[in-house]
Design goal:
Layout (H helix, E strand, L loop, with lengths): L1 H8 L5 E6 L6 H12 L4 E6 L33 H16 L3 E3 L4 H4 L7 H14 L1 H4 L5 E3 L7 H10 L24 H13 L10
Parallel strand pairs: 1-2, 3-4
Helix pairs in contact: 7-8
Length: about 210
């Protein structure tokens, strides 16, 4: 949400891509549609891609989502090569649109655990984008913008507030409850709660715990 808000603030026309990869936390797909509409996206594409066929993650397989806190190791909620796949699909659409700028919302707390959120990956993919596309071969460099990359959750919450964005539109929880509330205990919920608390802002999320 904040990454797209910053793109709009910078004057970019927004074409929003959401990947429906049959993830456990599919609530984020509906949330993405609400955000795209709020930000005035020219088009919002929801692209189906069933990564449950591969599994290998608590988000795409019958593996319990951890609820015991954030650790230093790469968590079981890591989806194999997810951002590589997502950026490749986004790159394909960008080239079809004749666009040269791609925004992705990876951030500092993510790349401490997830390798496909790290600055080295984003930089490497930008080079690949130039090598792998007709546009790149013709000198139209592709730019991967990661404006949240060096920000923590508190910084991101402050940016949402500064941009006048209702954080209640966004979804973070990895394990939505049957009543539609965020679990409040998964790593993503814990980081979100801590970010709002550190920023001194009200977290509008309805948590079950």
């Amino acid at each position: 949400m904040v990454s797209a808000g910053l793109a709009r603030e910078a004057g970019y026309e927004i074409h929003a891509l959401t990947i429906d990869y049959n993830q456990r936390h599919s609530c984020e797909i509906e949330a993405a549609g609400v955000i795209a509409g709020h930000l005035g996206a020219k088009r919002h594409v929801v692209l189906p891609l069933n990564l449950r066929q591969f599994g290998g993650s608590a988000l795409t397989d019958d593996i319990e989502v951890p609820k015991d806190g954030v650790g230093p190791e790469i968590p079981v909620t890591y989806v194999p090569a997810r951002n590589l796949v997502f950026l490749s699909l986004t790159l394909a659409w960008a080239e079809a649109l004749g666009a040269n700028d791609i925004f992705i919302g990876v951030n500092a707390l993510d790349y401490s655990g997830y390798p496909d959120c790290r600055p080295e990956f984003i930089s490497a993919f930008e080079n690949i984008a130039d090598l792998a596309t007709k546009a790149g071969s013709q000198g139209q460099r592709m730019k991967i913008h990661a404006p949240l990359q060096y920000l923590g959750k508190a910084d991101i919450a402050r940016e949402a507030d500064r941009l006048g964005l209702d954080a209640g539109m966004s979804w973070s929880c990895y394990d939505p409850q049957l009543d539609g509330r965020a679990c409040g205990l998964c790593d993503s919920c814990r980081l979100r709660k801590a970010g709002f608390a550190e920023a001194g802002l009200v977290d509008p999320t309805d948590y079950a715990a």
